[in-house]
TrEMBL record:
This is Phage-related protein.
Amino acid sequence: MMVSKPVEFRGSALEDLRAFPEAARGEAGYQLDQIQRGREPDDWKPMNAVGRGVREIRIRDAAGAFRVLYVAKFDDAVYVLHCFQKKTQKTSKTDMNLTAQRYRDLLKELGR
């Protein structure tokens, strides 16, 4: 049996996730649970522009499009870097930069 990895939220990611509408929040929780168990989320894409191994969970809901950016390549935990509602087709530079900064901070913290 696969041991479940803990999820660790970086910066304001947990508060941001809690601000999602209930259905989107529930879907994000389900997808993170899949990742914790070593499975792939249902709808994701790599975000290598942010950092190696960073992925984006894509959630579509009646209230709009929501994103959870995370990295799961480390053995100790699944790190959620950023959660936000997507307002346009393209992910904003602000969201990309914030995620990239949190990723760099995480690498420094892990000594990589």
